[in-house]
Amino acid sequence: MSDTEQSVPPGSSGDSSIASAPLVEHLDVEESRIAAELDGISPRTKFAVLVSAFLVVGVVLGVWRNFYFHWFEVHSGTINEAGPYYAFWSGFGSDLGEATIVVGIVATWRHHNCHVKGCARLGRRVDGTPYLACPRHHPDHQGVKRSVPLEELLGAHRKAETPRQH
């Protein structure tokens, strides 16, 4: 195949309008057909459908407000029990601290995990690159769990234990 030819997904009819769109190149046949049909709808019609959907949702929420809003007030603790928001901070709001801790731990782990796809271990910087790698994937470790053998650690420990002579 030459550089000027475009690849057509298997099973498609070879319609050049579908294969030439940049977004459609990475979709399968069914998705590309749906995307091509949606591209044929005018922007004015799409906007009208969006506004209509928001209006329908607004009307439904307005009609059922007493039911769902009271349920939300009870379960979030915002009903005026013993004072303004006392129930919130005693119930639902007291979990915000725990949620912050969990989110912080997850964010820290995501920031420091190995950059090899599918590896969930914590990593260290690989010199000369912006990447992190765990002991298993780090080029300096050469597949061993630690980069320093146990014998070398014991020798350094023994050397440090010997009395220094001044």
Shape by Cα distribution: flat
Q: How many individual β-strands?
A: 2
Question: How do the helices and strands follow one another from N- to C-terminus?
Answer: HHHHHHEEH
Q: Low-confidence runs (pLDDT<50, min 5 residues)?
A: 1-9, 11-21
- Helical amount: 40-55%
Largest sheet, in brief, is: 2 strands, antiparallel
- Class of secondary structure makeup: mainly alpha
On the 0-100 scale, what is the average pLDDT?
76
Give Rg in angstroms: 30 Å
For the termini, the CA-CA separation is: 78 Å
Q: What's the number of helices? A: 7
Strand content: under 5%
Report the oligomer: single chain
Reading side by side through the largest sheet, how are the strands ordered? 1-2
